[in-house]
Amino acid sequence: MNRTARLYALVEELRAAAPRPLTVAALATRFETSTRTVQRDLQALMQTGVPVRAIPGRGGGWSIDPQMTLPPIRFTTDEAAALAVALAAADTTAPYAGAARTAAQKIAATMTGPASTAAQELAARIVTLPAPTDTTVRTAVEQALTTNTVLQLTYTDAAGHESDRAVEPAGLLTAGGRWYLIGWCRTRRAGRGFRLDRITAATSTGEQAQPHALTELLRGSTAAHAVQPNALAPLAPPP
Predict the structure, then answer these.
(1) Is the pTM above the cut of 0.90?
(2) Whose CA is closest to 185, among 201, 163, 206, 200?
(3) DSSP assignment string, 169-199
(4) Is 23 within 8 Å of 13 (Cβ atoms)?
């Protein structure tokens, strides 16, 4: 059993036993490997965000929260290839790129057989030219969208003019390979789009932002006809 398959199997073994913890020794026996290898695998799962935890003391061991994990997912080879391409597109300049990488690791751990092979072979044939990115800016934008808090931005427009803006975030727009933060600009008192690679500084004010409908802020702009990507429809709440 290779390591990817073993990581996946470890998660399923812990899910089956939950909430009862399993010892490292028991897991090593189950997978016919050393306790050191199992310990290393469990640490790797923790680092990728899988909700496994060590329970100390007598009767302790390793456990997982089954409500925080997904059951086995069977991908077709085409679905696995599509995921490889989609994850490759989430380069370092895209919002939530860090989370996309850990999601990719989790997805890889669930794939076996032809789907896993197809994804691995395609992944080896995709390359990218990394663009410079400011992770501090990206992280601030991500947190502001998640917590709906006001951002203080320093922004350089297409003409090279720099300005400071207080922005209430409403959502993200992707167009032509670029990402834009769409929000209510308190400085201009209007909806505005801010290209992420032109934001030179971003900090959260901690102030809760007013809710703004993304479609309303885009109305009258060149992006007024933007639509939700079809691939995201299953994730969106019903109208």
Answers:
(1) no
(2) 163
(3) EEEEEEETTEEEEEEEETTTTEEEEEEGGGE
(4) no
How far is Cα 144 from Cα 39, in angstroms, rounded to an integer?
A: 36
Chain center to CA of 18:
26
**87 backbone φψ class: left, alpha, beta (φ>0; ψ -120 to 50):** alpha
Judge contact between 58 and 68, C-beta under 8 A.
no
Beta-carbon count within 10 A of 200 CB: 12
List the structure tokens of 190: 């209007």
Q: Which residues of 153-176 are buried (b: 16+ CB within 10 A; e: fewer)?
A: bebeeeeeeeeebbbbbbbbbeee
pLDDT in single tens digits along all 239 residues of the chain: 678 778 878 888 888 888 889 999 999 998 889 999 999 999 988 887 788 888 888 888 999 886 665 666 778 889 888 888 888 777 767 888 888 877 777 677 667 778 888 888 888 888 887 777 678 999 999 999 999 999 999 999 999 999 999 999 999 999 988 899 999 999 999 999 999 999 999 999 999 999 999 999 999 999 999 998 887 877 777 66
Q: Is 188 exposed, middle or buried (0-12, 13-18, 19+ CB in 10 A)?
A: exposed
Which residue type is seen at 171? G
- Which residue in 142, 182, 146, 145 sits closest to 165, CA to CA? 182
Give CA angle at 66 (64, 70), nearest 5°.
115
